[in-house]
Amino acid sequence: MSKLQELGAKGCAPWLDFVDRKFLEAKGLEKLVAEDGLTGVTSNPSIFEKAMGHGDAYDGTLAAFDKENPGAATIDRYEHLAIQDIKAAAETLKPVYDRLDAKDGYVSLEVSPYIADDTDATIAEAEKLWHAVDRPNLMIKIPGTDAGAPAISATIAKGINVNVTLLFSKAAYIKVAEAYAAGLEERVKAGQPIDRIASVASFFVSRIDSAIDKKIDERVAAGDAEADALKAVRGKVAIANAKMAYQWYLEFLKSDRWQALAAKGARPQRLLWASTGTKDPSFPDTLYVDTLIGPDTVNTMPPKTMDAFRDHGTVAETLTADIDEAKHVLSEAERLGLDLDGVTDTLVAEGVASFVKAFDDLLGAIGQKQPATA
What we know:
By secondary structure, this protein is of the alpha/beta class.
C-alpha cells in the first residue's frame, strides 16, 4: 500500500484539495483513486481562480457556452465551467461512492462567498447548485458563519449533502455539528430517510498556527518575560485545538441525541482537516497530516502536501494521543494571553474576505474573455 492508502486504512480519508480541467482531462484524479485510494475532492473560489483565471484550458468550453447563451451573466458563465469540472470529478469518484455505500467518494462545490452572511440566499444557492450538478456524491460547501449554521440545518433537511467550511474554533464546530443533527431530526419528523445523507465539518489548521506563532515571535523578539513558555507552544496550538474538537465529536456520538439518529441510520458528520499545507518552513511539510490521524476523519491536502505525505509521511493513530498535552497547550495559550478565540474569529472573517477576493478575480478574468458580440 502507498502511505496514502495506509492513511485511509487508519480511518483518515485522503481527499485532494484541488481541481483543474487539464488535471481531470489527463486522468490525474483517476490515477490518485487507483494508486493512492483517494476518496474525495474539495474545491473553493481560490482553487477555481487559479484554474480558470489563467491559461486557455477553459476557453473552448466558454466559447461554446457563449454561442448558445449570448449575453449570459459572468456568474452564469463561471458556474457552467465549475459545474462541468465538478460533474467530471463526481463521475470519477462515483465507483468509490458506490463501493463504500455512500460513506465516501464526494466532491465539494462551494456557494458564493458573496452570500456568506445571508442565510436565505445560502439555502437557495445550495439547492440550485445541488440540482445543477445532479450527482448523489456532491457536497455543497457552506461556511460555518453565524448565518451558515441555520442554512446548514435547512440544507440537510432538504436531503442535500453539506461540507461545512471555514471552521477554526471548537465553539463554531459544535454549533454546526448540532445544526447537522437538527437537519436530520427535521427529516425524521417529516418521515424522510436520513441513511444516505453525508456531511463533513472542515476544521482549518495551519492558518491558526500562522496567526498564533506570529504573535509568539513578536513577543519573544521583544524580550517577553514568558519567552520560554511562548516558544514551548509554538506550532502546537492548532493541533491541540483540532484534537479537542475531535474529543467533543467522540462524546457527541455517545449522546442520546445522536444515538436516536444513529438508530434511524444517520451517518456521523466527519471532521475534515483543511488548510493542511505547512506554512512555516521550519515545520515538517507533513505536520498537519501526521499529527491528525484517527477514525472517521478526512484530510484534504493540496497536491504538494499529498506528494510529500506519499513520499515521507508517518502513519500512526495520532489524533487521540497526548490529549493531556493538548489540554496543557491550550491552557498555556490562554494563560499567556494568545487569545485563540479572537484569532479564530478574525480568521473566519479573513477567510471569507480571501474567498471574496478570489471570486472577484475569477469573475474578472472570465469577464475579460467575454466575446465581443455578447
